[in-house]
Amino acid sequence: MPYSPLKSVMMNIDSAFDEKSLGFKSFSDFLKSVDSIELVCSDDAKTWLAAPKLSKNQNTDSLRAKKGEQEITALVETYQKLLKEKSWPSVPSDYLSKIYSVLITLPPLPKDELVEAVIGKLDDKKITSTDIKRAISIFLKSNFFPQNNLETLLDKSYCQLEKNEHYIKDIDIALIARLGSGCIENDIELDLDVVSKCLYENYKKDKLKLLIDQGNELYKKIKQQYGQKHGILLIKQ
């Protein structure tokens, strides 16, 4: 905390407190004499703060933890960049669920009418047409619009979302397939602990490994469809 208000706190505890009577010219000199406290400058360099003094080991551990957090953040940003390069749009998970819940109630419609149809039935007015377009793009990439009824067979421009109890898991598999492709092309490892931060659902480690295997198989299948060779995905356990 800022060390100036700290003196008021101490005087509330002991109204007779006076650093000068203890032989110190200022309150900051008094604080400097306390082994368990150190004065540090705030991030904006405008305020001096009184903070508990860490031991050498604690300091080292703190620096390691901070470095680890920075590395994780940097890798998450790298994965997000790779997904963007693979044309995988970003949509909040709650938006995705709300849009999905509306889409499964709609009859077969032309693709260019889907967005307006969803807007008309959505209760959450914070969700924009751009959010809906991005969500529909994710559903398309996850193969949720099969041509399995008369309207879609007669006119390929018509779409109807197929109900899927495990749709979030299948979306995550499709996401991993594209992220894995980006990692392979850029010679980047897929870190199990970090990739979980990019998914729409939380998974235990054994299920996450299975999910990554399924995503990798989907990546290979897509490559085969285009007559292309697939690479090898490096996975950091």
Count of folded domains: 3
Residue ranges: pLDDT <50 for 5 or more in a row?
A: 150-154
DSSP strand content: 5-15%
Report how far apart the termini are: 40 Å
Quickly count the helices: 10
Strand count: 6
Order of helices and strands: HHEEHHEHHHEHEHHE
Provide the helix percentage. Answer: 55-70%
Widest β-sheet, arrangement of strands: 1-2
Average residue pLDDT: 84
Global outline: elongated
Write down the Rg. 28 Å
Strand count, sense and closure of the main sheet?
Answer: 2 strands, antiparallel
Question: Would you tell me the structural class of the helices and strands?
Answer: mainly alpha
Please explain how this structure is put together.
- The protein has 3 domains: 3-52, no CATH class; 67-85 and 165-237, no CATH class; 88-163, Arc Repressor Mutant, subunit A (Orthogonal Bundle), CATH 1.10.10.
- The chain has 10 helices and 6 strands.
- The chain has helices spanning 3-13, 27-32, 56-85, 93-103, 111-121, 129-141, 150-154, 167-185, 192-195, 205-225; strands at 37-41, 48-52, 109-110, 158-159, 190-191, 235-236.
- The chain has a two-stranded antiparallel sheet with strand order 1-2.
- The chain is elongated, with a radius of gyration of 28 Å.
